[in-house]
């Protein structure tokens, strides 16, 4: 969220010089944001809070529209606020940025199901397509809105196809604009590979990329959905059940690398009916009430542990040690010379106002184990011959774990050409060219 915009604003181009698998929309927005506000944490924190508050507002308004009750809307909002913090909402990431778009899109979709106005479905699909160009995992959510009306509401296929023809045109126009821009930038092949080929075909098969849920994480996610069992087993509007189905579709945001913050869109959708769900729990059988109670207790224990662990914790990735290291780095190294960060914190680039050689990629195995990527980076190192390397020793553990993974060709080149110069923090070493 900070490094990509910094590199982009410093003359690097996306996909051929900044290797990343995300569509360009958010990176371009943040590059403009950082030109105005810089790269220190505070403006980003304010931006994050603005998105969170917007999400809170949307959950409240949509819940009020559905329930027509201020009390139930307030309960929905409180449910989201309480559980979203342990789920990692206080971090700026693609999923958080997408959440308001998903909520607005869902609202128009719900309105379409109620009123059958074709423009509502068009608006819902267009907003989802915009979200797709922020992060591709929104695709299952988009498919739900296409197929649900036909399969469950007996809406004319002709009716839906009419909408799809318009939204498909919108998607193609957006894609065409991207193709033209990256063709002119001479990075079209890289754009197609990293945004479409890599996430849909390569990534799930790359070493270290797939990170499934642990048993503990699985119990937390299941508990979240178990709370809403009364909606499934009680005679309620089919549209309420549709919300649960849609929320289940958004759990794909957390595949193939699971973390709770990927489920913020899921939690937001479930929260819309969490106030009304209380009434459904009251009407449920004793067995369902017991199961829901166990799920709530499990979620509460998980939440309170996270609150106590994170209370007054420093901003992640921007701890005091990072700032002091960046200051030392800015003193030791000339500004006009590139530096390479080996297995270390990349946020040092914007904080120390230093640049890496081109091309640049995070030292993740799912990037560097792609054929030809390490060779491409070594070519850049040979061309620029950086005088300094910031090195963090590799940890012990599974071969492809983050911090453990040691890219064979790249690390071999660096070991051969660089030697230790000075320790600049407890776990970082500055190396110089031999």
Describe the protein's architecture and organization.
It contains 20 helices and four strands. Strand 3 and strand 4 form a beta hairpin. The protein is mainly alpha-helical and 434 residues long. It has a four-stranded mixed beta sheet. Helix 7 runs antiparallel to helix 12 (238-250).
Quick structural overview:
This protein is mostly helical and 434 residues long. 63% of the residues lie in helices and 4% in strands. The protein contains 20 helices and four strands.
The end-to-end span amounts to 34 Å
Mean pLDDT: 91
Helix content: 55-70%
User: Per the principal axes of the C-alpha atoms, what is the gross shape?
Assistant: globular
Number of distinct helices:
20
As laid out across the biggest beta sheet, the strand order is: 1-2-4-3
Indicate the structural class. mainly alpha
- Main beta-sheet strand count, sense and barrel state: 4 strands, mixed
**Total count of strands:** 4
Radius of gyration: 24 Å
